[in-house]
Amino acid sequence: MTEPRAVRQASTVLLLRDNAAAEIELFMMVRHHQIEFNSGALVFPGGSVDANDKEIAARPELYSGGGGLDADVLGFRIAGVRETFEESGILLARAKGSGVLIDAARARQIEAAHRVALCEGKTSFLDVVAGNDLVLALDALVPYAHWITPEGMPKRFDTWFFLAAAPPDQLGVHDGKESTDSIWLSPREALAGGESGRFKLPFPTTRNLIRLGKQANVAAALTDARGMDIVTVLPVMTKTPDGGRQLRIPREAGYDGEVFEVGAVG
Hints:
Layout: E1 7-18, E2 24-31, E3 42-43, E4 46-48, H1 51-57, E5 63-64, H2 71-88, E6 93-95, H3 104-119, H4 125-131, E7 134-137, E8 142-148, E9 156-165, E10 179-185, H5 187-196, H6 203-212, H7 218-226, E11 236-239, E12 245-248, E13 259-262
Helix pairs in contact: 1-2, 5-6
């Protein structure tokens, strides 16, 4: 009997801002074509929870907004902040003793000093946070969705999606390694690009873009998310008589349907 594949914990952050056309915009990146998972896809910042995230979780002086959360939940949120910094350079943190997020100038200083080393494994996020007298703003993350990769896939993830308002003037840029391009665009523009073939959109990304595109602005999206009951989505994949594939997700999860014809699944 084949052993079931391990499911890795992961976090994804939808960084939001309002644009001049009265639409929500998101920071998204194009994955490098040689990356094993979601190669070439247009995605949100995110990645696996690692051991260092758990070490930070055991140091409550290094984060705010963690009251009452268990170690696993803290790990997801800390990973979300770390992956956002690694993949976009945007840092959701406050100076120790401050009630506001660090400004763009300070974020750029920290990025210039530590981002490359962090991405290359030459330093740890714990050292970056503690060494710069930072407090991670876990309270800036609002849980939005919870997806688990279907059984039978070669790599499986237990992923929490979070919304976060991007700090003013922190514009973000891709790392040039795991991702080869980055862009701020509205859900409407991202979905249109998926339809035209300009972008490759993973299935969960498409569903979350459609849902988010119904919101009028960032404030409305965050307020709505805070009131949501999040239903875990573990898509069930089946083959159709014509050789295609279908995915079924829970209707109560609040997406744009229950059964979908699909190609590749991300």
